[in-house]
Amino acid sequence: MPRHVKAAAVQIAPDLASRDKTLARVLDAIDEAAGNGADLVVFPETFVPFYPYFSFVLPPVQQGKPHLHLYEQAVTVPSDDTRRVAERCAHHGVVVVLGVNERDHGSLYNAQLIFDANGTLLLKRRKITPTYHERMIWGQGDGSGLQVVETRVGRVGALACWEHYNPLARYALMTQHEEIHVAQFPGSLVGPVFAEQIEVTMRHHALESGCFVVNATGWLTEDQIASVTPDESLRKGLRGGCMTCIITPEGRHAAPPLTEGEGILYADLDLSLVTKRKRMMDSVGHYARPELLSLRHDPAPIATRHLAAPETPFEPIPLED
Description:
Elements: E1 4-11, H1 19-35, E2 40-42, H2 54-57, H3 64-73, H4 80-92, E3 95-104, E4 107-115, E5 121-126, E6 149-151, E7 154-160, H5 167-174, E8 180-185, H6 192-209, E9 212-217, H7 222-228, H8 232-235, E10 245-247, E11 263-270, H9 272-280
Parallel strand pairs: 1-2, 2-3, 7-8, 8-9
Antiparallel strand pairs: 1-11, 3-4, 4-5, 6-7, 9-10
Helix pairs in contact: 1-4
């Protein structure tokens, strides 16, 4: 039977000073989208507390203070922050994909969280290779996050930003038969050419994977841009680059994209179109040639400590009287 899903892609500004205030914006957007009938709500890349825009325009020697601020405001998983999102998902019965800066002790990671409609956190994945300036900010993820998960809206996979330029990362999700692919970009970065590149990339993945693509990019106000750098020549790099869009398996926009300002983009997804597309071209099925070309995917988490034997808990020795 055909299934229909109403998707919402959120393009709003974070609060560059406060995780709590950004999270409040997330919860308000979930309420609004759910009130408009959304089954799936997608937020931009590392939206909580905010994308590290400073790393794109400031030299490393000037990044110490904003980088430490990002550490202070970053999200641990699980935490009270993730609990609040999970409760809102369960309250409305919606699936949410949220980008966060995840803090794991002394490191930060670009993480994508997929919450099911009952509030269960189905997946926490980390961007496998931070891009260019981002390598000063985040550590690397591993193959354990290249998973497609079963949600109330269907089989959902996710990648962040330029991970979409890694064809094998995309193929790892395609082999797991994703029906809805979630993409997240920072927005307000690089300029108009970035928006053009995002559109091409999203439409191509929809065609190649034979799935729907729901992409969310962020937005910065002029005051926020000015707060990142006082240099007007550098502020140019913090404008444009917005392409919040929803793409069908046939590579078409399901609704006109959002390329500036704040808003929530909605579209109805008829999942029967996935089969319609794959009837003609299934990249991991009848159109594949696995005896010639195949993918090796290591899904094991990477550990920095390997025990040669089971660890014995330390038992303190009581002091004698």
